[in-house]
Amino acid sequence: EKMKQYLRLIKYLRPYKFRLFMAALCTALASAGTVYLPWIIKDVVDQVLSEKDSEKLTYIALSIVVIFLLRGFFFYGQSYLISYVGQSVILDIRRAMFQKIQRLSMSFYDKNKTGTIMSYVTNDVSALQSGLVDNIVDMITETVILVASIVAMICLDWKLFLFTFCT
């Protein structure tokens, strides 16, 4: 039953699949920037501090600035695209609800209070936006960061990863 309801909701996302794909791409690239920072810190510790290589330090400092700028750009892109899709989906759902309400019989309005109907139209649709768009984005972002972090930890030092994972 719940899966059927989710599939009904997902049909509202179909017209925006390109923007959703671009938002997912921005999420992945921003998350990659987050995961890449430990490699830079590793280079600072391994090469700059041990070898006292000031040229390498300049390169690493510039790369950190570039990564933070790119992360900001991609997080902005993700936020903008998801907000656009979320607002568009809510507009589509409210439009569909309005059309449905227009077709209901007068006896429906005799049985139901106007405040209850208005609550459905405003509050329930906003709750849908939160559940459908905002929470899903957070879940996807955090999942990508988690998986990428695990892969990065394995690549950096698999023994340390196993120790950390076991702990």
How is this structure best described in words?
91% of the residues lie in helices and 0% in strands. Helix 2 packs parallel to helix 5. It starts with a helix and ends with a helix. The protein has 167 residues and is mainly α.
Number of strands: 0
What is the structural class? mainly alpha
The end-to-end distance, rounded to whole angstroms, is 40 Å
Percentage beta strand? under 5%
Largest sheet: none
Q: Over all CA atoms, what is the radius of gyration?
A: 24 Å
Number of helices: 6
Low-confidence stretches: none
Helix content: over 70%
Secondary-structure element string = HHHHHH
| Average pLDDT metric | 83
What would the principal axes of the Cα set say about the shape? Answer: elongated
Secondary structure: elements and pairs:
Elements: H1 2-10, H2 17-51, H3 54-103, H4 106-111, H5 114-156, H6 158-166
Helix pairs in contact: 2-3, 2-5, 3-5, 5-6
Keywords:
167 residues; mainly alpha; 0% strand; elongated
Short description:
By secondary structure, the protein is an all-alpha fold. The chain is built from six helices and no strands.
